[in-house]
């Protein structure tokens, strides 16, 4: 049940420290990333990795894809419904990774099957043991987030992103041409602190206050660059699906190529910092600010975005690889509290289903 929570979504947001501990459990040993199903050498011969996914899972795949590229592995992140037209060449040196919480999304299964038909090796990253994706792929990695009841994916996004970050290290060990990040030890050490960092965010009520202050807005724009780009897209998706308000996410630098025409004093711009380089986000947020838009910075206290922001939602300091996950939790809370004020049916938004089994 929902226990003390008004909605499953809020319960699931609050269960992320536990869910993530389960995701990580036993997978880092003596500074090495290990997956039982993927012994050393599993990925030898792989030259290209293609992620296929939909919706929130696509945003997690974008996150993982950037980390793989940083390890110098050829990577594509493809919306599963566009796989036939948008993927590059596929052969036996390709690994197709289906990222799917339910393991039942028709578009994602279709892309997985198409990849396999072309000779690719396949991997499912999923929450559901025995799901179709897990059964059909050559191998499966379970994200271990526990069952998710709310239609809006929350804890499963966080567990997917962490699973993919770990998978990146595992793949890099087998096939990267460059050595993995120099600061890998530090990255893996700070991962152990992530559940505590999440607790610190869950104790705040800054997102609820922000929701109250911005509830009469016309549109909500979410921007970010680098790893923050996918977080901005995810923030906007979550916001629109449960509030029914107009929300869009953009790569920070793209705002001036069209969307800026929609920016007014009635459209807050929520600028995401993961603790990396935020200059692009800052310059573009300034453009929006000079058109009157309220600017909300989500990020660590030392992000340069705080110099210009009207409101700042703080995240604990961590490795830049994990900062986006913390920022995303603030965005989950923002969406939740906005939807609650608007009295929306948060756990079952209109027109949406938990798993989409039609193409
Ligand atoms: C958004 C949401 C959807 C799913 C998408 C893929 O909150 O839940 O966008 O992420 O339908 O579902 P799975 O991951 O089950 O393949």
TrEMBL record:
GO terms for molecular function: carbohydrate derivative binding; glutamine-fructose-6-phosphate transaminase (isomerizing) activity. It catalyses: D-fructose 6-phosphate + L-glutamine = D-glucosamine 6-phosphate + L-glutamate. It comes from the Archaea. One of its GO terms (biological process) is protein N-linked glycosylation. GO terms for cellular component: cytoplasm. It is found in: Cytoplasm. Its main location: cytoplasm. Residues 39-177, 206-349 form the SIS domain. The active site is at 354 (for fru-6p isomerization activity). Keywords: Aminotransferase, Cytoplasm, Glutamine amidotransferase, Repeat, Transferase. Its EC number is 2.6.1.16. The keyword Transferase applies. Catalyzes the first step in hexosamine metabolism, converting fructose-6P into glucosamine-6P using glutamine as a nitrogen source. Homodimer. This is Glutamine--fructose-6-phosphate aminotransferase [isomerizing]. It comes from Natronosalvus hydrolyticus.
């Amino acid at each position: 049940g929902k226990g003390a929570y008004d909605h499953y979504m809020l319960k699931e947001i609050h269960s992320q420290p536990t869910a993530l501990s389960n995701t990580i459990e036993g997978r880092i040993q003596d500074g090495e990333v290990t997956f039982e199903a993927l012994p050393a050498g599993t990925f030898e011969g792989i030259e290209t990795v293609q992620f296929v996914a939909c919706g929130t899972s696509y945003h997690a795949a974008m996150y993982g894809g950037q980390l793989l590229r940083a390890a110098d592995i050829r990577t594509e992140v493809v919306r599963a419904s566009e796989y036939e037209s948008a993927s590059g060449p596929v052969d036996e040196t390709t690994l197709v990774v289906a990222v799917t919480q339910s393991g039942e999304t028709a578009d994602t299964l279709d892309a997985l099957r198409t990849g396999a038909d072309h000779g690719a090796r396949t991997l499912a990253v999923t929450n559901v043991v025995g799901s179709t994706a897990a059964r059909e792929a050559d191998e499966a990695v379970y994200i271990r987030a526990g069952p998710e009841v709310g239609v809006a994916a929350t804890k499963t996004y966080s567990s997917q992103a962490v699973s993919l970050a770990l998978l990146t290290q595992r793949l890099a060990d087998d096939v990267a041409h460059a050595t993995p990040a120099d600061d890998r030890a530090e990255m893996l050490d700070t991962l152990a602190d992530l559940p505590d960092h999440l607790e610190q965010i869950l104790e705040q009520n800054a997102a609820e206050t922000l929701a109250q202050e911005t509830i009469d807005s016309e549109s909500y724009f979410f921007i970010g660059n680098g790893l923050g780009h996918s977080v901005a897209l995810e923030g906007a998706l979550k916001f629109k699906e449960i509030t029914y308000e107009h929300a869009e996410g953009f790569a920070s630098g793209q705002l001036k190529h069209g969307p800026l025409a929609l920016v007014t004093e009635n459209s807050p711009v929520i600028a995401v910092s993961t603790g990396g380089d935020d200059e692009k986000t800052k310059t573009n947020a300034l453009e929006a600010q000079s058109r009157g838009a309220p600017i909300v910075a989500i990020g660590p206290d030392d992000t340069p975005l705080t110099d210009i922001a009207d409101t700042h939602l703080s995240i604990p300091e961590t490795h830049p690889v994990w900062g986006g996950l913390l920022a995303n939790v603030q965005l989950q809370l923002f969406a939740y509290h906005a939807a609650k004020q608007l009295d929306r049916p948060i756990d079952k938004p209109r027109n949406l289903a938990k798993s989409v089994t039609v193409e």
